[in-house]
Amino acid sequence: QLQLVESGGGLVQAGGSLRLSCAASGRTFSRYPVGWFRQAPGKEREFVAAISWGGGSRYYADSVKGRFTISRDNAKNTVFLQMNSLKPEDTAVYYCAADRREFTSAVHTTPEEYDYWGQGTQVTVSS
To answer: Do the Cβ atoms of 51 and 126 come closer than 8 Å?
Structure first.
């Protein structure tokens, strides 16, 4: 079983930055694609960004493209989400998730394709 723990959320003013971390334990994290999703109150969980197991492929939602950067340090079993130029509409609980298909070249953008989830970290952007 793979355990994921997000950290780095908080309250920030519009235009500010935060860096989220997703730390993994329990299995070899470096074998799995990882995604970030977010869920605002009353809304469905939505895709934010994803990265392939080796880090060579990265995908972003249109709403965050150019502002957010996903990266991973497999030696530290950690995936990051650097969020710049934050907007009030970025306010949500952010979750990281891992796809259990080891070494797959596919990187998915829907939550149904991910098997392991963290508990989430709250990001609040004030205007």
So the answer is: no
* DSSP structure string for 31-70: GS-EEEEEE-TTS--EEEEEE-TTS--EEE-TTTTTTEEE
Bridge-partner residues for 80, per DSSP?
A: 21, 71
- Per DSSP bridges, beta strands 3-7 and 10-13 are unpaired
Is residue 89 within 8 A of residue 29, CB to CB? The reply is no
**pLDDT, mean of each 10-residue run, the chain (127 residues):** 95 98 89 97 97 95 98 95 98 97 92 96 97
Q: Among 44, 42, 17, 47, which Cα is nearest to 123's?
A: 17
Report the C-alpha gap between 25 and 23 in whole angstroms: 7
**Is residue 90 within 8 Å of residue 83, measured between CB atoms?**
yes
- Cα distance between residue 80 and residue 72, in whole Å: 6
